[in-house]
Amino acid sequence: MAGISNDDIQNFLSNLERRASSSVTPFSEFPMPWFGLDIGGTLTKLVYFEPTDDKGNFETEEELLSDRMIQRYLTTNKAYGDSGVRDEHLELQNVTINNRIGTIHFIRFPTNQMPTFITLVKEKEFTLMSSTVCATGGGAIKYAKDAESELNMQLLKSDELESLIKGIELIASVNNEECYYYDYPLDNERCRKVSWKWSKGCCSSECTDHSQATDDGLQYPYIVVNIGSGVSVMAVYGQHDFKRISGSSIGGGFFQGLCCLLCGCDSFEEAVMLASHGNNRNIDKLVKDIYGRAYDNVGLPEDTVAARYVSVHTRMYCV
Fold this sequence. Notes:
globular; alpha+beta; three-stranded antiparallel beta sheet
């Protein structure tokens, strides 16, 4: 999230605390270490805040050693077991959260490995110092009892769609260049990045007047399409006013399963790698395959996909 400063993150966290109910424990009161979990249907994403300011407040030598062991294990490895990965390119350095300075690390692994993850946490005694972890996603509900019984740890659950909207609010409020798309993505010569101006509802090449921009940088209502294992479509009418209006079972889980069947890949990463080298024109039928050229009467370029997977039965390969 290029362009987001440490002050921006701190201010956003402070705002969330002010909005929270008085019955909810403020984030600042959670003991170190700080973790967050998003347990999705296909992938689990873990975020870890590594303090670098050396202001540890530990009651015992055992707590100090445990904290250092967690830091060493999570920050010196890029891979965990057969399927856990730390995305170094995503880490945020020198971030200030609740007067602590540190680095935010991002780790992911398949959700079907959650039992293995729970066993690892138990063996490494990662819950020795912290009995509460913030969590979202469907797995936060599914694995709540396992976390409590096996780890004596409570998952402080947040609704995943509400968390998504709050994340969009953060991005829109601190970086109006973060929302963008690529014009002419298949044309190497004409391809260009175009920023979408949240506050005006227009792209950067067409929008120059920002006199009516809203304070939070958002123009309501807007539509959010969240692609996970499945797909949810939400209409957002305000900061705390949204509803799910549609969805689809064809999402990331469908993509991974289809790649497994067609190409024999074993993981989401392998599927993405194969897709980056593949050529959909080998199996899809384009407008030019039907008309011999573009369908100008309705504005369809010749390279528009008219039908998916039409040529699979005539091909011996799918890349």
